[in-house]
From TrEMBL:
It comes from the Bacteria. The lineage of its organism: Bacteria, Pseudomonadati, Pseudomonadota, Gammaproteobacteria, Pseudomonadales. This is Transcriptional initiation protein Tat. Transmembrane segments: none annotated. InterPro entries: PhoX (IPR008557), TAT_signal (IPR006311). It comes from Pseudomonas abietaniphila.
């Protein structure tokens, strides 16, 4: 979901100066890699045209395809030898006798509860226990449905006009669990599988962890503060080592409003962005649960990471409060050297933070069910970055993690926190107390399977300077319309570390419009691979870094030549980036997963034709565009990207 106008106004003094010497390149450059060597020397010794030549020469051993041109067509573009097909689209019935998709917009809420949700986003694939990766012929996929587009959801094309409309909108969001199967190298959706399931805006869900049962989570409908209805605005995802799915609640604030236009809000509520007038969602006039004048605490029961067992269609999802409450983008999991689970998380709003959770207990790899409550006990930290060096092409520096525990680091009654539950419910405020670094909208985070380095997209922040957020370090632009990808290596390559070294893997820009860094992009940006607003990220098994964009697709002005939103692929060692796919008109490319044998790539096309102009993917006359999960395969059946 593109949020160029996020609300954020809190002022913070953030920067600390620590030891910024002694940072090595940490494998940024592979021996003998031409363009890598150019970046090692500051990026000024090799012209962009030579960089471009290296892209088209196909001489990178990790990236086995040539960069494709940008495009503005209402279709998918791929390198020669690749093809795409639709796995599933918004409205497709999940069950044998469920109602078919109704393009008229007159379909009911009940029908939508039995159909694939709208605006698919983050997703994970789960092989069945015992199946080998190379031969698996079936799997489950859990797929987020982030939000809906009223223009297409309703026949009237406007915001909800009734309780039934609101119910339908809530049914279009959440998560879809589906079975998929492989036949002759092609993965397809299995309609009618007993695993197929919708979790949506009215599904019963438990709250667990330190904040569960707190006064602020109790409502007239739930006096325990432990049982909530629904998950919605489910952005991206995580996959645990014990085979469960994590779905992340992002723009939940937008779903709340007040029937009292004069209602005022305390600083905490304001920090989370509430306003009496619901921005565009407009649920509160027809569903009192979302009316802040009637149910002020319902708001606190959303904004969490939710754990789902895809293999048990009867299981109740669980909101894990130990991971903190904010506008969660995704959850990137790894393990410490001593076997505890680590979850990296970004809060996607201008000037908000990057977090890390470390579990108290170790992961039990022999007995997955023993990890059922692992995410309920642990410690939450927030990142603080130094200003680093002044190399505009490749900024780098040091950072540290600061604990968000009641009674530590000034987080106590003196700063307005009575206990740990309050710290977690108001994680943003606690992170401000410890002077965390205000970032350029942290989106996805991923951990390299090769060296444990962590990558995070900072998608854009056009108001950094205007809002008084400090300019520098990993956020080097006062008006950041293109975004950058941040990377860090934990000290000792241990995710348990409290310190790290950071650098910017790429600073996106437009070298066709702006000369030099930063607006022209870092030296690994060329006219052949330029993009804006990096958002989704994914690593494949071989260590290729896939980059998905949610940016300005006008193809004009500062964005001229960039075309529609796209997916690129990077070599983390050399820094080289090639454009792999371009999406249809008006879409965002988001959500990525791989078949176990790496011979199929699942990628999400979200909100094609967001403002009209698309009939993707069916291209029926006067047809509606439908968000879809695509399957990318090679005509020769080979590994994607190789
Ligand atoms: Fe749902 Fe921040 O993207
Ligand atoms: Ca985005
Ligand atoms: Ca996103």
């Amino acid at each position: 979901m593109n949020l160029l106008e996020d609300n954020q106004s809190t002022d913070l003094e953030t920067l600390v100066r620590e030891n910024s010497t002694g940072l090595t390149r940490r494998g940024f450059i592979s021996a003998g890699a031409l363009c890598g060597a150019a970046m090692f020397l500051g990026g000024n010794l090799l012209s962009r045209s030579v960089m471009a030549a290296s892209v088209s020469a196909g001489n990178n051993t990790l990236l086995g395809f040539d960069s494709i041109p940008s495009a503005t067509a209402d279709s998918i573009s791929l390198p020669p030898g690749y093809r795409s097909s639709v796995l599933i689209s918004w409205g497709q019935p999940l069950h044998a006798n469920a109602p078919a998709f109704d393009a008229s917009g007159k379909g009911t809420a009940k029908a939508q509860e039995l159909q694939f949700g709208d605006n698919n986003d983050g997703m994970s694939l789960f092989t069945f226990p015992g199946d080998s990766a190379d031969t698996a012929k079936r799997a489950l996929m859990a797929i987020n449905n982030e939000y809906t587009n009223y223009r297409y959801l309703f026949d009237h094309g406007k915001e909800p006009q009734s309780a039934e409309d609101v119910h339908k909108a809530q049914a279009s969001e959440g998560v879809s669990v589906i079975e998929v199967k492989r036949e002759g190298g092609q993965w397809t959706f299995v309609q009618g599988s007993k695993y197929n399931r919708r979790i949506h805006g009215n599904t019963p869900i438990h709250l667990s962890g330190p904040a569960a049962g707190h006064e602020w989570l109790k409502t007239s409908a739930d006096k325990t503060g432990r049982n909530v209805l629904g998950t919605f605005q489910n952005c991206a995802n995580g996959k645990t080592p014990w085979g469960t799915y994590l779905t992340c609640e992002e723009n939940f604030t937008d779903c709340f409003g007040s029937s009292d236009p004069a209602q005022t809000f305390d600083p905490a509520a304001k920090r989370y962005g509430v306003v009496a007038a619901s921005k565009e969602v407009n649920w509160h006039p027809h569903d009192p649960r979302f009316d802040l004048a009637k149910n002020p605490n319902e708001f606190n029961r959303h904004g969490w990471v939710v754990e789902i067992d895809p293999f048990d269609p009867t299981s109740t999802p669980v909101k894990r409060t130990a991971l903190g409450r904010f506008k969660h983008e995704n959850a990137a999991l790894t393990e410490t050297k001593d076997g505890r689970v680590v979850v990296y998380m970004g809060d996607d709003e201008r000037g908000e933070f990057i977090y890390k959770f470390i579990s108290r207990d170790k992961v039990n790899h022999k007995n997955p069910k023993a990890n059922r409550d692992l995410l309920d006990h642990g410690t939450l930290y927030v990142a603080q970055f130094d200003n680093g060096d002044s190399n505009a092409d490749h900024p780098k520096g040091q950072g540290k993690w600061i604990e968000l525990t009641h009674g530590k680091n000034g987080i106590d009654a003196s700063s307005g926190f009575a206990n740990q539950a309050e710290v977690l419910i108001h994680a943003r405020l606690a992170a401000s107390v410890v002077k965390a670094t205000r970032m350029d909208r942290p989106e996805w985070i991923v951990v390299s399977p090769k060296d444990g380095q962590v990558y995070c997209t900072l998608t854009n922040n056009v108001k950094r300077g205007e809002e008084g957020q400090p300019v520098g370090g990993p956020n080097p632009r006062a008006k950041n319309q293109y975004g950058q990808i941040l990377r860090w290596q934990e000290t000792g390559s241990d995710a348990a570390s409290m310190a790290f070294a950071w650098d910017l893997f790429v600073v996106a820009g437009n070298p066709g419009v702006h000369a030099g860094t930063p607006q022209g992009g870092s030296s690994n940006i060329t006219p052949q691979n330029m993009f804006n607003s990096p958002d989704g990220l994914g690593f494949d098994k071989a260590g290729r870094l896939w980059i998905l964009t949610d940016g300005d697709s006008t193809n004009a002005g500062d964005f001229a030549g960039m075309g529609n939103n796209q997916m690129l692929c990077a070599d983390p060692q050399s820094g080289e980036i090639r454009r792999f796919m371009v999406g249809p008109v008006g879409c965002e490319v988001t959500g990525i997963s791989f078949a176990p044998d790496q011979k199929a790539l699942f990628v999400g096309i979200q909100h094609p034709g967001e403002n009209g102009g698309s009939t993707f993917p069916e291209h029926l006359p006067n047809g509606k565009p439908r968000s879809s999960v695509m399957v990318i395969t090679r005509e020769d059946g080979g590994v994607i990207g190789a």
